Structure formats: structure tokens, C-alpha cells
Amino acid sequence: MIIDTDNYELSDIKIIPFPGGEWHVELPTIPFKHVHIWAKMRTWTDWGKLKFVLSALVHDGVRPYVFMPYVPGARQDRIQAKFAYSIEEYAHDLWNVAGLTAVDVHSQAAEDVLGERVQNFHVLPVTTYFPDLSNEFDIVLAADKGAVERANQVARIINCPRVVKCEKERDPKTGKLSGFKLPEMENREWDRLR
To answer: Which of 59, 76, 140, 185 is deepest in the core (most CB within 10 A)?
Structure first.
């Protein structure tokens, strides 16, 4: 059985909001030992529904395998005073799955947290989905310091000779980005890259 989080109804799963906003989940009879969930997480509501569907499945004796292309909270992968350690909270919600496969989790730190708390955790690098791109690019841009490691991985896979680190600032209270800066490069370099 495959459960698509974009359409629980196809699997006869009913998710009903109570007047207070909390979710109530009703499962059909599930005659399968293996249930797979294609978890497309875009909003907090998507996460809340998934969390309660997982709980209902586990209480019904089913431990699902989850394919989650995007893992929420992976960008909050460091412990900082006054800020939530979000990846740990999301990982905690997934402790009871039989397996989790994600695509290109934000950082090694986030992967480590998920790997410590979730059984059978696997990561498919986003580059798995690249066609043969060798020798077609001059640079790979890293959005900021935290993206350099991933940019280097991509550059190696596509045989790109250069990684360029950009800069930005994030307001920790609002998440708003500003202060974007490209590295210093000679005009002829930028002209050649256009």
C-alpha cells in the first residue's frame, strides 16, 4: 500500500479537523504488513497530518516506510541559544517509522541527527537525478558558507572545475534574507559565464 500525503483519501484515510484545530485520523482496515508513505512536506499542516497518520498506523500495528524528498527543519541543524533545534524535533516525530529515505538533506549535521534517531535512514543525493552534465558548467554557486560542502559535492559529480561562495544575511527573528553578495570576480570572468 502506498499513501500519498497529497491525497490521503485515495488510501481511505480520513483526516478530520476538530473545532480546536487538532487533527483526528481514521484508518481503514490495512491488510498489508508493508506500507509506504510518499511524504510531500510543504507546510506545517502537511507535517501535522503526517505526524498523526504515523501515530495511527503505529497504534494499528503498522510501521511505515517513508520517502520524504524534503525534510522540514533540516536548516535548523545547530543548537543555538534562544532558537529551536528544529531538526531534532522533526526527527523525534519520525522515531517510529520502519525506514526513512530523504533527498539531499540540508547538511551533514542534519543527516547525523536523523541517522541517530530514525531507524533505517537513507539519503539520496539530489545529484542522483542529474543527467550527464559533465563539462557543461564553469562554476557551481554556493549560496553561503553552509552550502560550500554540498556545492563541492555537486561540482565533483558534474566535473565542474570551480565552486564560488556567495554571501547573504538572515534575520534570525524573521528568517528574512538580505545582504546578498557575489564574490569579487573580474568582469571578464562574469562575461564568460553569461
So the answer is: 140
Strands (E), the chain: 2-4, 14-17, 23-26, 36-38, 65-68, 99-103, 121-124, 140-142, 163-165, 167-170, 177-181
Residue 5 buriedness (CB in 10 A; 0-12 / 13-18 / 19+): buried
Distances (CA, A) of 130 to 108, 126, 127, 157: 21, 7, 5, 9
Query: What are the grid coordinates assigned to 89, written together?
Result: 524535533
pLDDT tens by residue, 68-123: 988 887 776 777 777 777 888 888 889 889 999 998 777 788 888 888 888 899 98
For the segment 39-48, what is each residue's pLDDT rounded down to a tens digit?
999 999 999 9
**Rounded alpha-carbon distances, angstroms, from residue 3 to 17, 71, 92, 166:** 19, 17, 21, 39
pTM, entire model: 0.71
